[in-house]
Each structure stands twice: as C-alpha cells, then as structure tokens.
C-alpha cells in the first residue's frame, strides 16, 4: 500500500532511522508535534509498512565478523525451479547478510561476513559451494568500508 508522506512524516522517519530507541516524548519534541499526534503518525507509518521494525546495529569487529566479501554467483539455469531452490537455501546461511537477484553478468550478488579469510574459506567450502544450481562464483574482499548507512533518504 502506498502512503503519502509529508514533511513531518519525513522528519519522523529520518529521526527514527538515526535514533530508533528515542522515546515518543523526545521524538514529538524533535519533530515539533504533540506527543499524541506523533504517536498516531508513527503508528500509521508502522501499519502502512513504511516502518518495518526496529533493530540494534552491531559492531562486526567486536563480534569477530569484520571481513566482508561480495560474492557474485552465476547459476546453471534460469528456470523457476533453479532460482527458487537457490533462494530457499541461501536464506538459511546466517553469514549471508544480503542476497540480490541481479541483472548483468551475475545472477546473484551476496554480501557475506566472516571472521577472516580462513573463516570465509570455510563458509565458501561448507555452505556457498553447496548451494543448488551454482555454476560459477567470484569473490571480492572488501578492503575498507568507505561509507555505510542503513538510513534511506526521506
């Protein structure tokens, strides 16, 4: 369902993306609304599916998952059965943070986290190489993250 957003909705969303644990009282002050009006707007945004949920962002270094690898995967075919089987199995790998169906040279692009190159080798051998329908894989290691955000422009 599409929902029309005004400038106040945009301010609410921008604030919540940066400070997800902000209280309704603080949020209402930040966006210059009464607490009840602010609460109703947030509730409307949640019910409309604009706000999908609230999360804690974790530091990958402190959890020994600081190696980021982008894996391009080409499948052996493009039938619904091949695509469905691949997607069903890739969802079960917790080291895969993102999986995108692509247009271009690869069928899928995965963002994988690992402790180090040895850990990625294990993930590759035990999990990625066993995914159904995989014909080719090309891995690229991130040397440094230049920009990372979870905030969508509103």
UniProtKB/TrEMBL annotation:
Entry's transmembrane regions? none
- List UniProt keywords, sorted A-Z: DNA-binding, Transcription, Transcription regulation
Select a single GO molecular function from the record's annotations and give it. sequence-specific DNA binding
- Gene Ontology CC terms: cytosol
Return the InterPro entries for the record. Answer: ArsR-like_HTH, AsnC-type_HTH_dom, Dimeric_a/b-barrel, Tscrpt_reg_AsnC-like, Tscrpt_reg_AsnC/Lrp_C, Tscrpt_reg_HTH_AsnC-type_CS, WH-like_DNA-bd_sf, WH_DNA-bd_sf
Residue span, HTH asnC-type domain: 5-79
Q: Which GO terms describe its biological process?
A: regulation of DNA-templated transcription; response to amino acid
In Swiss-Prot or TrEMBL terms, this protein is called AsnC family transcriptional regulator
Organism listed in the record: Silicimonas algicola
Lineage per the UniProt record: Bacteria, Pseudomonadati, Pseudomonadota, Alphaproteobacteria, Rhodobacterales
């Amino acid at each position: 369902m599409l929902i029309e957003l005004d400038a106040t909705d945009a301010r609410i969303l921008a604030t919540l993306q940066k400070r997800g644990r902000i209280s309704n009282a603080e949020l209402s002050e930040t966006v210059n609304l009464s607490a009840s009006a602010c609460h109703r707007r947030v509730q409307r945004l949640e019910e409309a599916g604009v706000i999908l949920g609230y999360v804690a962002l974790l530091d990958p270094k402190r959890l020994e998952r600081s190696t980021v690898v982008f894996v391009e995967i080409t499948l052996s075919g493009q039938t619904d059965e091949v695509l469905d089987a691949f997607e069903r199995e890739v969802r079960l790998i917790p080291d895969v943070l993102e999986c995108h169906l692509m247009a271009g040279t690869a069928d899928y692009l995965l963002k994988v986290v690992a402790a180090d190159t040895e850990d990625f080798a294990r993930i590759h051998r035990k999990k990625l190489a066993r995914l159904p329908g995989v014909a080719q894989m090309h891995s690229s290691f991130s040397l440094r993250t230049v920009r990372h955000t979870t905030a969508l422009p509103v």
